[in-house]
Amino acid sequence: MPRPAWTLYAYQLIEPDEQLDLFACREVRVHLVARQLCLGGHADRTLCGGLLPAQPRWRALEKVWLRDRRLCPACLTTFEAQRQGLHSNWADG
What is the per-residue pLDDT for 90? Predict the structure, then answer.
């Protein structure tokens, strides 16, 4: 059975640890990261454009996380746009 073009497996979730990274989000938020690196993009960025923490705690993205109040609103907006095909996570060549 072929896999659909869009899937939750294409994303990972990062959770902040007890010491928030100086350059990452300073709020206690969880962020989404595309598993597939964007060609010509930044490999160290979340969907909202924030820098990844120095040692992120990775989690598989599950549907329940999409309703979590700690999920970054900008990451969720980008995720929904990609889900609807309005914004690709691949750079335009």
Answer: 43
Tokens of 3: 């896999």
Cα–Cα separations (whole angstroms), residue 1 to 4, 22, 38, 75: 9, 45, 26, 30
* Pair 31, 14: CB distance under 8 Å: yes
User: Tens of pLDDT along 34-85?
Assistant: 887 655 566 678 888 888 877 788 899 999 999 999 999 999 999 999 888 7
* Residue that is written with structure tokens 């309703």 in the block: 67
